[in-house]
Task: structure prediction
Amino acid sequence: MTSTPRRGPISWLRSLFGRQALPDAPVFSPVTVDVPEIAVVHRESVVSFETPAKGGGFDFHVEIRCDWCAEGRLDTYSLSRAVDGYQAALPQRLAERVREITRDYQPFHAQEAERAVNEALREGECFDSGLVTCRTSTVVRPAPEIVEQQRKAALDLQEIEHHYAKSSLRVRLLSEVAEEWRAFLASGLVDVRPDDESASWLTPWAVLLAERPEEAAAEVGAMFRERQKQLDQFVTLVGRQRKEYQAHDLFEFVIDNERQLGRAMRLFGLAPAGESEPGGGPAEPLPQPRSSRS
Result:
């Protein structure tokens, strides 16, 4: 038993239409769709308004520069219209956000307020899922009355700085010149070097000569005469003290010194010797001098 081979769909169609030609398959032609290119619109604007500082007594003047950017597969006219709509509503939105920040700052702290506002607006504004964006840069200025006071304060500080800068320069130059005069004067003394402690008395004269070098001859002579006079006075003082100590009774000397010591101890809140302490008994009396009898 033989079986007929199974015919495919093409053979079946041929048997159906006979020897006639099969209809042509439809031909599809590609359709070109115009996709708009990405368009970009840039625009800059400035928003200015007054906002209260801390306490409400003065206002800050705020100026915000806005950099707008609209980007999408739209024509530039549509993008510009989108920017127009958001730009019109932005000033009120910015004023409300800035007001919440500036109320925390004193009217004379405009720099700190400006820094805080820029930090709060650092991310910028984004509209319509990113179709329109706006970046901002803020400048905060104090009230005119505050600016006038700050100007006066700045001038005062400048005058103070210049005064002390001039004084510092004068001291530095005077020190350099006086050191030269000090070495010059020390060279006239026997076995004395300018850096010795024994030459410290030369410093005032060195400063004087640094200020008035044209009077060097007269001042150097006056210096040595004054030094000789001080030496004579010192010798006289030492001689008088020596005589007083020789004539002073030893017991009186001890009593005088103890009296002075007690006065100093009272100044420091200490109990002097010979006085009773709180809660204690009487102190022992000082020894009395014995009369010398032969």
